[in-house]
Design goal:
It is built from 18 helices and 16 strands. With about 550 residues, it is an alpha/beta fold. It has two domains: about 200 residues, P-loop containing nucleotide triphosphate hydrolases (Rossmann fold, 3-Layer(aba) Sandwich); about 240 residues, P-loop containing nucleotide triphosphate hydrolases (Rossmann fold, 3-Layer(aba) Sandwich). It has a nine-stranded mixed β-sheet with strand order 2-1-3-11-16-15-12-14-13, sandwiched between helices. It is elongated and about 115 Å long.
Length: about 550
C-alpha cells in the first residue's frame, strides 16, 4: 500500500533527523542543554563554601597577626590560631604539621607565641589561697637560713617553694613534681637544712667512714657541684658543712673527697656511681642518715643508674609504714623524690625499700605543660639544610643577646658539630657524657660564667642545671621523647632569667614529626603533653 502525504513519514523519522528537516525548512533548532550530575554539583558547592570559609579564617588570622594576639603563628595564615580561640577537648584541630612527613613540606614552620610575660612559677594565682602570701620568714625557717637566702639575693618564694617547704617541714616523705626552672632545688634544700638545725646531733667521729645526716643523689657531677654551691651558701651562716662526691677517679680520690677539711660534713651530694663505690669500700656509711633526696628522678631511672641507686637505697635504713606515736619528730628517714618528669617503674623500684603509699604528692598546676612565656619555633628541614640554618642563626645573633645551648642526640654529633664551628671561627664549648671526668670538670662552670657564649651538648645539660643566662636553645637534633623536649625548653625562661628566651627546633625525620604533632595539639588545646603522668601516683600491687 502506497503511503500518501508527508505526515506519516515525518512521524517515523528520528527526532534528530526531524530537527534537521525543520532547520532546512527555516525553523529555529532547539538549544543544547548540559545537565551537571547532582553529586558533582554538591561537591562544587562544598568546595566553594570551604574556600569562602578559608578566606574568612585567613582574614581573621591576618587581623589577629596584625594585633599580635596569636597563640600559634603559621607560615600559612589560615592555620594560625588566635589566643581567644578555644579547641575542645575531643576536637581534632587542623595542624600545621599534619603534612610534614611529606618531603614537599620542607621549608614550612610555625611558632608558639608567648601568652604571658612571667614564668608560671612566679604567678600567685596558681597557688591555693592559703599559700599565696607566704614568705620565707612566715614559713618558720631558721634565722640562719634566712641570712643565707639574703646572701644569695633571694627574697621571694616561687610557687613550688610555697607548696613544698611547709609540707616537707612536717617530716613526711614526698614526691615533689614541678616544671623545669621553677626553683625545686631550694624547695628541698631549705627543709633539709632547717631539719638539721632544728634537731642537732653530735658530730661524726673524726676517724672512720663518713656518716652524713643528709644525702642528695643527683645524676651528674655538674649538678652535684651546682647544688653543692647553693647548699654551702645557705648553710654557711649556720656553720653547716656540705660536701660533694663525684666519681671518675681512683678510690683514693673518693676517700680524699669524703675526708677533706673541715671534716664532718652534715650534707653529702653525690652521683650514684661514686656513692656506690664509697659504700662498697666502707668510706661511707648511712647509719646516721635522716634526710634523703633523689633529684632529677627521671635521669636516675636511666639503665646506667638503676643498679647503683638500688644499692644505695639498700644501705639506707628507710622507714616502712606510717609515722609512729611520737609523731614527725621521731628518728625516721625522710625521702623526697624531685623532678619535672617521672618515668614508669619509679614507684615499683622505691616500693622495694619503703612504703610508697605513705608519700605525699606535691605538684604545681603547670607540671607537664609547655612554658607559656617562651617562644618556641618549629622548622621542617632536610637533614642537609640543618647546618647552614644553624650557622646563619649563630652568625646573625648579636653578641650581647645572651648564651646559646645547642642540643644534639649523641656524643658523636656534638664532636662533629664542634669541628664545624671551629672551622667557622665560632667560639664554643662541648659537653657530653663520653668525655673523661677531667675533661668535663669545669666546662659547665665556665659556660655559666659567660667565658664562652655557646655550648654544644647532649641531654646531659638538660637536667637541673642553672642556665639563667641562656636566651636561645637550638634543638639541632629533635629530642627522642616529649620528656626530653620539656627539659630542653626549660633551659630558658627560668626563675632569675633576664629574658624569657627562644627555642628553635629543627624537624627532619618522620618520627620527629610524630612528636611535633603531639606538641602542636597540646599547644592548641592548652593541655599538658600526653603520656607524662608519673606511675608513682599508682602504688605497686600488694605482694608484687
Amino acid at each position: 500500500m502506497a503511503l500518501s502525504g508527508g505526515g506519516a513519514v515525518g512521524a517515523l523519522l528520528p527526532r534528530r533527523m526531524a530537527g534537521t528537516r525543520a532547520a532546512a525548512a527555516g525553523a529555529r533548532p532547539p538549544e543544547n542543554v548540559v545537565r551537571v550530575p547532582w553529586a558533582l554539583r554538591m561537591r562544587l558547592q562544598r568546595g566553594a563554601q570551604r574556600r569562602r570559609r578559608g578566606q574568612g579564617e585567613a582574614a581573621a588570622a591576618a587581623a589577629a597577626a596584625r594585633s599580635g594576639r596569636l597563640l600559634l603563628r603559621s607560615r600559612r595564615p589560615e592555620l594560625s590560631q588566635p589566643r581567644w580561640q578555644t579547641v575542645g577537648r575531643w576536637d581534632q584541630p587542623q595542624l600545621v604539621s599534619a603534612g610534614w612527613k611529606h618531603r614537599k613540606a620542607c621549608g614550612d614552620y610555625f611558632h608558639l607565641e608567648p601568652s604571658q610575660e612571667v614564668a608560671p612559677a612566679l604567678k600567685q594565682s596558681s597557688l591555693p589561697e592559703a599559700e599565696r602570701g607566704l614568705s620565707f620568714t612566715e614559713m618558720g625557717l631558721q634565722p640562719a637560713l634566712l641570712a643565707g637566702l639574703e646572701a644569695l639575693s633571694i627574697g621571694r618564694p616561687t610557687a613550688v617553694q610555697r607548696l613544698a617547704i611547709p609540707a616537707l617541714r612536717r617530716g613526711r616523705s614526698a614526691l615533689c613534681a614541678a616544671e623545669t626552672g621553677s626553683g625545686k632545688t631550694l624547695a628541698y634544700l631549705l627543709p633539709l637544712l632547717d631539719g638539721l638545725l632544728a634537731r642537732p646531733e653530735g658530730p661524726e667521729a673524726a676517724e672512720g667512714p663518713a656518716s652524713p645526716r643528709g644525702l642528695v643523689v643527683v645524676p651528674s657531677r655538674e649538678l652535684a657541684v651546682q647544688v653543692g654551691a647553693v647548699a654551702a651558701a645557705l648553710g654557711r651562716p649556720a656553720g653547716l658543712e656540705v660536701r660533694e662526691l663525684t666519681g671518675g677517679g681512683a678510690a683514693g680520690g673518693l676517700r680524699r673527697q669524703l675526708r677533706a677539711r673541715p671534716p664532718g660534713a652534715a650534707v653529702l651530694l653525690g652521683t650514684p656511681g661514686a656513692l656506690r663505690q664509697a659504700l662498697r669500700r666502707r668510706f661511707l656509711v648511712l647509719e646516721r642518715l635522716r634526710w634523703m633526696v633523689l633529684d632529677e628522678a627521671d635521669s636516675l631511672m636511666d639503665d646506667s643508674f638503676v643498679e647503683p641507686l638500688e644499692e644505695i637505697l639498700a644501705h639506707a635504713p628507710l622507714p616502712v609504714g606510717a609515722p609512729g606515736p611520737t609523731g614527725p619528730g621521731e628518728a625516721r628517714i625522710q625521702v623526697v623524690v624531685v623532678g619535672a618528669t617521672f618515668p614508669a617503674g619509679l614507684s615499683e623500684m622505691l616500693g622495694k625499700f619503703t612504703d610508697v603509699d605513705q608519700f605525699v604528692t606535691i605538684t604545681t598546676q603547670s607540671l607537664h605543660r609547655l612554658p607559656p612565656h617562651v617562644q618556641q619555633k618549629f622548622v621542617r628541614l632536610k637533614g642537609c639544610d640543618k647546618l647552614p640554618e644553624l650557622l646563619q642563626l649563630l652568625k646573625e645573633r648579636p653578641v650581647s643577646s645572651g648564651a646559646v645551648l645547642i642540643f644534639c642526640n649523641s656524643a658523636s654529633t656534638v664532636n662533629w658539630l664542634g669541628y664545624i664551628l671551629d672551622d667557622h671561627k665560632i667560639k664554643h664549648l662541648r659537653l657530653q657524657g663520653q668525655m673523661s671526668a677531667a675533661a668535663r670538670a669545669g666546662i659547665f662552670a665556665s659556660f655559666q660564667k659567660g667565658d664562652v657564649p655557646v655550648l654544644v651538648c647532649t641531654d646531659l645539660a638538660s637536667r637541673g642545671l642553672d642556665t639563667s643566662s641562656v636566651q636561645l636553645v637550638v634543638n639541632y637534633d629533635f629530642p627522642n621523647a616529649l620528656q626530653d623536649y620539656l627539659h630542653r625548653v626549660g633551659r630558658v625562661g627560668r626563675v632569675g632569667s633576664k629574658a624569657p628566651g627562644v627555642v628553635v627546633s629543627f624537624v627532619t625525620h618522620r618520627w620527629d614529626v610524630d612528636l611535633v604533632q603531639k606538641i602542636e595539639t597540646a599547644a592548641r588545646k592548652r593541655t599538658g603533653l600526653p603520656g607524662m603522668d608519673s606511675s608513682i601516683s599508682k602504688p605497686p600491687p600488694k605482694g608484687g
